[in-house]
Each structure stands twice: as structure tokens, then as C-alpha cells.
Specification:
The chain is of the alpha+beta class. Helix content is about 50%, strand content about 20%.
């Protein structure tokens, strides 16, 4: 077997593969023998079909399959061993393949067109400094966050007389239609004209109201009646609500009950520890936001300072063929600049990872998924009671092959590890800013993007 690379330009090449009979015939002969043992043909005992019969009936298709397998292995091996920065897939030369005489095969020759990224260096220490922000989370930010948590986990009381903001529970009826259900009426969803009927009521009071003129919108009517939103327009007439209970929510007091709800049972034992832990969470949240901004700025710096030439026309043709029927040439042209940026960034990161020996192991993937699940559950501390559940959910998430979650998490962990390598080499300009400054900066960046 002979494999020869011919560079036509810095970004285009032709890979020629020559196969002699000694390369493919042993594999063909072995496959024919295997067929002879397995195939059932009329007139022959099972496993006793002569090889020349198999050769006559299936020889050509077996030859084509084995040669294609050899070609696939030869091309991928050459690319890997010679560390070619191939972009897109190798494209077979159809005219060259059509010249092959399969009926009288001896020496076979094939060719593939390759798109190649130009050579580039990743001298990260030579990149300009990237701004890295630290957000000053002060006492005002802590107080604001705690107020939000008190409202998110409110204390509930059951007053004797209703006020604005209360939830009124009871039995809702309409005698004319024999409709009845138990429901909750949120006073905040009542129209201004109807509100006085629901303020100052107590248990066992009966409130009569018109269903269409009482609430702010159709969603509120649907919630109270249990009907679908699209069906509420057909409701009409007076309904009665027999009051059974009144619930009033107020911002939670700073008690152990709130501490446990927010952080997990027993994580903190007093208000001082609670504030320290909440401040820690605030700083962690802002650190994640600044890390996201840093990641974006690093990626921009990499693209702006590392020049890579790509075979544009080759890639557009390849995208059109591989996505036939999904995207038009015009759509590919419109999105090609973003595709090129993504591809260049991937090439840069892969080269950095290869140089640094970055590898991703399953325990790292599982730990990343655990933390993601904890975030979704709103668990800030290490809740021992939840560990088994979190592990089960995380493992189930990674096992979902239909959504290919494992590959998605693998790529995120890989990206994070490469970013760590980059951060240790790229100079940074450290800046401490206030929350309001960061919010304005992030908002401006989002609008610019």
C-alpha cells in the first residue's frame, strides 16, 4: 500500500492511495471463506458451499467492501499519524474511482480531496492582556439578596379577615350550570372594581361575583375555575365563593426554618453563619458570571491574534453536500462567518489541549453533572440526604443516548480544562468593579453581540 499527499495550496491537498493485490486479496479470500461457512444455497449442504461458487456470486461486492474498508482505515491513519489539520471530511475523487476495473482488479488507485487548515502557532503568552473582573459584593448586595430569599420562601399565616395580597380558598359554585370546584382566588389578580368584594371577608362568608368582570385576565379565570384558557370566554353569569380559609404570605423571618430551606438542613446554625454562607454563594454566582465574560474575551483574543487560513469554497461545498436538503447555499453563505469562527476556535483549543496533554476522565464528567443537577435542584450546600438522589439523576442523565448528553457534558468539561490551561498562560488585566458597573458592562456586551 502506498499513500501519497500532494499539497495543491496551503489549504487544499490531494491524498492518493494505491493498493496492490497483496493488500486486499487476503482479506477478500478470508471473507469468501466465511461466507461459504454461513450461507445457505439450494443444492449445497450448510457450510459446504464451494469458495468458487461464492466468488462467482458475491466476489465483486466482497472485493468492493474490503477495498473500501482498507481505504477508510488508510486515509484516517495517515491523517492521524501525520497530524494533518483536516477540516470537513475527505472527499473521494469520483472520476478516479469510476476508472477502476473491478472485474480485472490488480493494482487499484484512488484519490481524495482534503481541506486543510494552514499552520499556526499557539504562543499564548504573547497574546495581549485580557481583562478579568472581580465583582465587589458589598453589604447592600447581601441585604438585597436576603430580602429576595425571604420573599422566595415566605412565611404563611391564616388571618381571620382578608386583605389585599391574600389568597382566599373556598368552594366555587354556579347553580345554573351545576358547576362546583374548590379553588384559590389570588386577590392580586382581581380587577380594581371587584376588589372590595374580596377585602374584609372571613370564613363562611359568601361572595357573589360576575366571572368575566372580576379578574384581570383570562389566565386568572382559568386558574380559578380550572378551565382551559381557550374555554374561559364561554363562561358567563354570576358565581359564588364560600370562603373556607385565608392565607397570607409575608417575607420569612431569619429563623432556622429559613436557613434550612435555603441552604439545606443543618448547614448553618445562626443568622451570622447564614449571612456568611449567602455572601459566599453571591460571590460564587458573580464569579461564574465574570468567568463567562472572561471566557468570551479569551476566545475573541485567540481569534483576533492567531491567524488560520481555511479552504472556504471547499468547506461551503462540503457543508452543502453533507446537509443536502437541510440548508440552501444561500443559508450556508449567510452563516459561514460564524461557522469559520467556531471551526478556528475548535482547531486552536484542540492544539492547545494536545500540547498540554489535556484528557477528560469519567469521574470528572460525573462530578460536573452532579454539580449541574445540584444547581437545578437549588441545593447550595452538601446535603447528605440528597447525595444518592443526585447521583442517580446524574448517571441517568449521562446514560440518555438519544439526547447524547454524555458527549455534551464531555465537551463542556474538555472546554473548561482547556480554558484553565489558557488562563495560566494568557496575561490578564485584573480589575475590581461594583455590581452596577458589571451589570452595565454585561448589558452593553449583550447588546453589542
Amino acid at each position: 500500500m502506498e499513500v501519497l499527499l500532494e499539497k495543491n495550496s496551503p489549504t487544499l491537498a490531494s491524498l492518493k492511495v494505491k493498493l496492490t493485490k497483496e493488500d486486499y486479496q487476503p482479506k477478500v479470500d478470508k471473507t469468501i471463506k466465511d461466507y461459504a461457512k454461513r450461507v445457505n444455497l439450494k443444492g449445497f449442504r450448510p457450510g459446504k458451499v464451494p469458495s468458487h461458487v461464492i466468488q462467482r456470486m458475491y466476489g465483486k461486492s466482497i472485493l468492493v467492501d474490503e477495498v473500501n474498508n482498507l481505504l477508510s482505515t488508510a486515509v484516517s491513519t495517515y491523517i492521524r499519524e501525520n497530524k494533518l489539520q483536516v477540516v470537513g471530511d475527505p472527499v473521494p475523487d469520483r472520476e478516479k474511482a469510476a476508472e477502476v476495473n473491478w472485474d480485472n482488479a490488480t493494482e487499484l488507485e484512488f484519490a481524495y480531496d482534503l481541506g486543510i487548515a494552514s499552520d499556526f502557532d499557539t504562543n499564548l503568552s504573547e497574546l495581549p492582556a485580557v481583562k478579568r473582573y472581580t465583582i465587589n459584593a458589598d453589604d447592600a448586595e447581601l441585604a438585597k439578596t436576603i430580602d429576595n430569599l425571604r420573599e422566595r420562601f415566605p412565611d404563611s399565616t391564616h388571618p381571620e379577615v382578608s386583605e389585599l395580597g391574600d389568597m382566599i380558598f373556598g368552594e366555587l359554585k354556579q347553580e345554573a350550570t351545576e358547576f362546583t370546584t374548590r379553588t384559590a382566588v389570588p386577590t392580586k389578580q382581581l380587577s380594581e372594581d371587584a376588589l372590595p368584594k374580596f377585602i374584609g371577608v372571613k370564613k363562611e362568608d359568601v361572595i357573589t361575583f360576575d366571572i368575566q368582570n372580576t379578574f384581570n385576565d383570562e389566565a386568572a379565570i382559568a386558574h380559578v375555575t380550572g378551565k382551559k384558557k381557550e374555554d374561559v370566554a364561554s363562561l358567563e353569569g354570576e358565581y359564588t365563593l364560600i370562603v373556607e380559609d385565608i392565607t397570607r404570605s409575608a417575607p420569612a423571618e431569619l429563623t432556622q426554618e429559613l436557613f434550612d430551606k435555603v441552604l439545606g438542613a443543618g448547614v448553618v446554625e445562626n443568622e451570622e453563619q447564614f449571612k456568611e454562607k449567602v455572601l459566599e454563594v453571591i460571590k460564587g454566582n458573580y464569579e461564574r458570571e465574570t468567568e463567562a465574560l472572561l471566557r468570551r474575551d479569551i476566545e475573541i483574543a485567540l481569534l483576533d491574534n492567531i491567524a488560520i487560513e481555511l479552504p472556504g469554497d471547499f468547506l461551503k461545498d462540503w457543508l452543502e453536500k453533507t446537509n443536502e436538503g437541510k440548508f440552501t447555499r444561500e443559508q450556508i453563505e449567510e452563516q459561514f462567518e460564524d461557522f469559520q469562527k467556531s471551526l478556528k476556535l475548535s482547531l486552536i483549543k484542540n492544539k492547545i489541549a494536545d500540547t498540554a496533554g489535556v484528557k477528560v476522565e469519567y469521574p470528572e464528567i460525573l462530578e460536573f453533572t452532579r454539580n449541574m443537577v445540584k444547581g437545578q435542584f437549588g441545593i447550595y450546600g452538601d446535603d447528605e440526604n440528597m447525595k444518592e438522589t443526585i447521583d442517580r439523576v446524574a448517571q441517568g442523565y449521562l446514560a440518555d443516548k438519544e439526547r447524547d448528553n454524555y458527549t455534551s457534558i464531555f465537551n463542556q468539561v474538555f472546554d473548561n480544562k482547556v480554558l484553565d490551561v489558557i488562563r495560566n498562560q494568557v496575561p490578564t488585566d485584573e480589575q475590581t468593579i461594583e455590581v452596577s458597573e458589571f451589570e452595565a458592562l454585561a448589558k452593553g456586551e449583550a447588546q453589542e453581540a
